[in-house]
Automatic annotation (TrEMBL):
It holds the Pfam family ELFV_dehydrog_N. Keywords: NAD, Nucleotide-binding, Oxidoreductase. One of its GO terms (cellular component) is cytosol. This is Glutamate dehydrogenase.
């Protein structure tokens, strides 16, 4: 283990003993605890208050059965989760993921990361995450609706606009949020901002759909500018082709870059002329088809089976926007060998720890997820504000606020790294800057 501080080491060892099977959660916790060494050394009162022990345990974990009937009349059963991690600085806030890989380890890692990310936005939001091992791929709209209704029939009793406000994540977009909102409203007889990512006609915020991808590019742009570089003329590779990837493509292109490769879990496409985000939107959001069908629109493009090979495509900037641990050491080596100078994470924890270290050691600018993909949840926070005010801001107004938030996140992250003697290490900077506000709130609120 690379944690040297005795207090933090003890906390981490406790986690490894209690949750030996929760690999993703341990991976996320180890990275944060490592970053906090200089902070904890400067604040002995944290140990006395058992602060870190409390921070690594969720306040509440809810697990439940989700029964539903498929189109053939057969009863299906999935597992549902909501991990309410930390409410020191605001109501629990974080997405719902529907993917067959979902388990308690994955939801805990996401919920833990969410606490620090939400803190970085500067908005009053605690951290949480949830989801199910349900796979929306290949299901009819009616099946997705029945699943969402069943999921909300249990979840509703744990959430609320001032308690816990879920949103989307992998496999949960506008369609799923709509069905869940409808069921919540029906059960509670209450029209409230209990979910974000809602449709515009029923309380959604303009620019929320675009926010994670746009925010990622605003953050990356700031990081590039601070190092004498820019998106202008750069070749960009984006993994994934979902919500985050599509709007990262649009914004990177607007900022002067060319997006030459994108992927899904089956494979990736390369189009040296630049991938039009509108084509990808049509394939993924309207047709719900595989990325391979891009060739029907652009026959001159190339399709390669298998998603991992995408890191071998030579580029200046790489934006991993699919899922956790999708960019391993071999991928990082290929990126460096081909001259890539910046990696910013759109997905949560997409880069493995050894790959992150390799990129940083080789001078690649590295934007960590908690900072670089915080634009989605930040705009969810703006959706909550609009719901509370009972009004709606224009697209331009929300986008301008998002831009300001991302610039501030970059500045605060870079400043925290420098303050603790790790200039340029934005991984440490994001963990420290996110931690400070939560720590201060928890110290004020007593042992709870
Ligand atoms: P979507 O469901 O819209 O898209 C997910 C994309 O990633 C798809 O292209 C999917 O391919 C691919 N993918 C998912 N799982 C895997 C896997 N195991 N292996 C390879 N590819 C995979 O999700 P989002 O775009 O919303 O989320 C992408 C990432 O961004 C996630 O890590 C999420 O946590 C993170 N994020 C999302 C935010 C948001 O606002 N939506 C905010 C901040 C972070 P396929 O269709 O083949 O499964
Ligand atoms: O990982 C994330 O930050 C999200 N999926 C968005 C969460 C939210 O509440 O908007």
């Amino acid at each position: 283990m690379s944690i040297k501080n005795a207090y933090l080491q003890g906390v981490y060892e406790g986690l490894t003993q209690r949750y030996p099977e929760q690999k993703e959660f341990l991976q996320a916790a180890e990275e944060v605890l490592e970053s906090l060494e200089p902070v904890v050394a400067a604040h002995p009162e944290y140990e006395a208050a058992g602060l870190i022990e409390r921070m690594v345990e969720p306040e509440r974990v809810v697990m439940f059965r989700v029964p539903w009937v498929d189109d053939a009349g057969k009863v299906q059963v999935n597992r549902g989760y909501r991990v309410e991690f930390n409410s020191a600085i605001g109501p629990y806030k974080g997405g719902l993921r529907f993917h067959p890989s979902v388990n308690l380890s994955i939801i805990k890692f996401l919920g833990f990361e969410q606490c620090f990310k939400n803190s970085l936005t500067g908005l009053p939001m605690g951290g949480g995450k949830g989801g199910s091992d349900f796979d929306p791929h290949g299901k009819s709209d009616a099946e997705v609706m029945r699943f969402c209704q069943s999921f909300m029939t249990e979840l509703y009793r744990h959430i609320g606009p001032n308690t816990d406000v879920p949103a989307g994540d992998i496999g949960v977009g506008g369609r799923e949020i709509g069905y869940m909102f409808g069921q919540y409203k029906r059960i509670c007889n209450e029209f409230t901002g209990v979910l974000t990512g809602k449709g515009i006609p029923y309380g959604g915020s303009l620019a929320r759909t675009e926010a994670t991808g746009y925010g990622l590019c605003y953050f990356t742009d700031e990081m590039l500018k601070a190092n004498g570089k820019s998106f202008q003329g750069a070749k960009v590779v984006i993994s994934g082709s979902g919500n985050v990837a599509i709007y990262a493509n649009q914004k990177a292109t607007q900022l002067g870059a060319k997006v030459i490769a994108m992927s899904d879990s089956n494979g990736y496409i390369v189009d040296e002329n630049g991938i039009d985000y509108k084509v990808m939107k049509e394939i993924k959001e309207v047709k719900r088809a595989r990325i391979k069908t891009y060739l029907d629109y652009v026959p001159s493009a190339k399709y390669v089976e298998g998603s991992q090979g995408i890191w071998n495509v030579a580029c200046d900037i790489a934006l991993p926007c699919a899922t956790q641990n999708e960019l391993p050491l071999e991928g990082a080596k290929a990126l460096v060998a081909n001259g890539c100078y910046a990696v910013a994470e759109g997905a949560n924890m997409p880069t493995t720890p050894d790959a992150t270290a390799y990129l940083q050691e080789n001078g690649v600018l590295f934007g960590p997820a908690k900072a670089s993909n915080a634009g989605g949840v930040a705009t969810s926070g703006l959706e909550m504000s609009q719901n509370s005010l009972r009004l709606a801001w224009t697209f331009e107004e929300v986008d301008a606020r998002l831009h300001d938030i991302m610039v501030n996140i970059y500045k605060n992250t870079a400043a925290a790294a420098e303050e603790y003697g790790m200039k340029g290490n934005l991984v440490a900077g994001a963990n420290i800057a996110g931690f400070q506000k939560i720590a201060s709130a928890m110290m004020s609120q007593g042992v709870v």
